[in-house]
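C-alpha cells please, single chain.
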Amino acid sequence: MPPGAVAGVTSRQAKPGETIVMYGVGFGPVTPSIPAGQTVQPGQGNSLAETFNVLFGGVPAAKITYAGLAPSAIGLYQFNVVVPNISNSDSVPLTFTLGTETGAQTLYTAVHN
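Here you go.
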C-alpha cells in the first residue's frame, strides 16, 4: 500500500527488484504431494503442480522464487514474487494465471522506484 493508505498502519510502495510475499488459498496440488489438512513442515520443499505466473499491470513478474504451500500452515499457499521494472503507481493491478486459467480477481499493489 502507499504510505498513509490506512491510518496507523506503516506501509510503503514496493520497488522494482524487491521480493514481495503474497498468500492465497485454492491453488491445487503441489509436488511432492502433501495431503490436504496436513501442516507443511518448515524446510519441507514443495511447488505448485501447475505453472504459476503473476502480472503487474500486464508486465510479468521479474521472477517467482517460490510458489507452493506455506511452511507451518495448512492449506495456505505462499508466493515470493520479484517486482518487475514498471512505472510508478499506487494502484498497479496484479493478476495471475495458474496453468491455462486466469485468476478471477484483480488485486492491487503500489510500486515506486
